[in-house]
Every structure is written in C-alpha cells, then in structure tokens.
Amino acid sequence: MTPSHPSALPPAHRWIDPIWPLESAFATTRRLLFQPFDLHRWLVLGFLAWLSQLTSIGTTGLNTQANRSNSSPPTAWNASDILWEARSAVRRGLETVQEHWVWMVPLIAFLAIVVLTVWVALIWLNSRGDLLFVAGVTRRQTNLPEPWHEFSREANSLFRFRLVLDVLGPILLLALVGLEWLVVSLSGSDSRISLPWIALLLVPVILLATAFWLVGWLTTEFVVPIQFLRRCGCRKAWGVLLGQMVRFPTSFLLYGLLQIPLAIVTGLAVVVFAVLTCCACCLLLVPFVNVVILLPLYVFYRVYPLHFLSQFGPGWDAFQAGESKADG
C-alpha cells in the first residue's frame, strides 16, 4: 500500500498517514519543475503561485517585536488613565476632522473606497489563483484562459466565502475587544489592571482570532482541492471536509502539527539561501520575483495536501483527475 494509492479498506480501518505524502510531494515537485526544466512552465506556475499568495503575508514571517530591547514591562496599568488617553485621542481626531471637514471628509471617503476596492479585488484574484494553481500543478498545463473560465463558478463561490470571513472576523474581534474594554471601564476609575488580568482578557481574543485563521487555513489547504475535485461550491466542499475530519480526526491533527517543523525547516532554508546568495537576498524582497525564486517551496506546499487527500480513496486523487483532463 502506498500513500497515493491506498488499498480499499473500510473507512473505519483505513489509516490516513500525514507523513508518507511528504515523499510523494517531494517527488511531484521535482518531476514538475525539473524533469525536464521548462522556463515557460516555471514562470507560469510562479505567476499562479503569486496569485494564490496575494492576500498572504508570505512564506516566512519574522516577528520584529520580539527583537526589541525594551525595559521590563510594568506590572499594572491604571485603567482610568488608559481610557482617558484613548478618549482624548479620539476627541482630538474628531476636532481635526471638524476643523477641516471640507477636504478631509471627501479625502477619507475616497481613500476608504480605494482601499476597499483593492482589498476586494485581491480576494477575488486570490480565489481564482488558488484554483488555477491546483490545476497547474496537477495538469502540467501552461494555458491560463481555459482553467480561468473552467473554474469561474468555484472561484466565485470561494471568493464570496472569503469575503464574508474577512468581514465577519474583524467585526467580531472589534466587538469582543469593545465589550472587554467596556467591562474594564466600568470596573472603577481607581482599579488596577495586573498582567494576569490582561492575559485573561486576551485569551478570548486570541482564541477567536485563531479560529478565524484556522478556517482560512483549512479553506486554502483542503477546501480548494475538494472544489477542484468535486467541482462544487465552497460551502459544499466544507461539508465534505468536515465529514472526513470527523472520520479521521487524528490524521488531520497530526497533519496540522506537522506544519510546525515544516515551517521551521522552510524558514531556515530560506534564510540560508538568502545568506549564501546576496543577490537573491535582495530579490526576495521584490513581489512576484520572490515567489518565482522560491517556487519549489510553493509547489511543495500545494501538492502536499493533494497527496494527503488522495489517501481517502477513489475520486480523491487530484493528479489522476488532472491528467485525465489534460489527456482529454
């Protein structure tokens, strides 16, 4: 039995291994990009990978806040002072707007419309890019117009889901923070907020933010491939995914935990590559160019969940479906 072609065992007895597909993902990445090497295909896949990463921070993230040499934080803050400073800042901002409302209000409205339009456009392009990237790595095709129109319905469904998620997440987070801020303000003007109390207030905020991040990650990791395989909308794909997660919770948990060492190894590899190649270090800061340079990593991270899903049985092999479509 191989990870890509498991034997037809009953679902209750089949073991979905998150480790074996790593070897298949490495082999697929090597075969797709280097056997043989095709510069045109490399650039097309790089463009698709870039589209699929438009709303992401990047491959690796460095937290500069942890490197700051600040003095030890105070053990308590006066809640009334914090509230007074916040109210003063808001009041000063409103006074500034009132004094120059003739030009500030139209400017703020214009900037808000521009930011909102760009944000919606990025989500739309990102949704198209995710499905096109899956099609690109499974079909080995460089013809963009055909899959662009073929997966328009699935991409639009994914776009609507992500748009609602990106709107609902900040609203709920702001509502939760506002509720906690109200509780603190009503606790008394002379109250002192200790570090344990602040940590307790941050727990629900962190949990809610983590939940929305997890939904977004699962959508990219598994829901998009399910949409590609089943040619269905995002909500239906989520239903299919939840059914498999209930059947194989341990496998999905191990898959998620495996992302931690993978992210560490990937980050170290990118840092070593940047240090050894000074020119590439500068190019990694250039949008699109950094994705083209690091394309093997993006391809690996895209095909890994595809090989993981292929263990669920017939109809779950995206590469077999992609080759059949390419041959047809």
Main sheet makeup: 2 strands, antiparallel
Count structural domains: 1
The gross shape turns out to be: globular
Secondary-structure element pattern, one letter each: HHEHHHHEHHHHHHH
Q: Would you identify the regions where 5 or more consecutive residues have pLDDT less than 50?
A: 1-13, 57-80
Tell me the fraction of residues in β-strands, as a range: under 5%
Question: Helix/strand/pairing class, anyone?
Answer: mainly alpha
SSE topology:
Layout: H1 20-34, H2 39-52, E1 76-78, H3 79-99, H4 101-139, H5 145-150, H6 152-185, E2 192-194, H7 195-230, H8 234-247, H9 249-276, H10 278-283, H11 289-293, H12 295-309, H13 318-327
Antiparallel strand pairs: 1-2
Helix pairs in contact: 1-12, 2-4, 3-4, 4-6, 4-7, 4-13, 6-7, 7-8, 8-9
Give me some keywords for this one.
single chain; 328 residues; mainly alpha; two-stranded antiparallel sheet; 13 helices; 2 strands; 74% helix; globular; disordered N terminus
3D architecture notes:
This protein is mostly helical. It has one domain (20-57, 78-327). 74% of the residues lie in helices and 2% in strands. It contains 13 helices and two strands. It has helices at residues 20-34, 39-52, 79-99, 101-139, 145-150, 152-185, 195-230, 234-247, 249-276, 278-283, 289-293, 295-309, 318-327; strands at residues 76-78, 192-194. It has a two-stranded antiparallel sheet with strand order 1-2. Mean pLDDT is 80; it is low at 1-13 and 57-80.
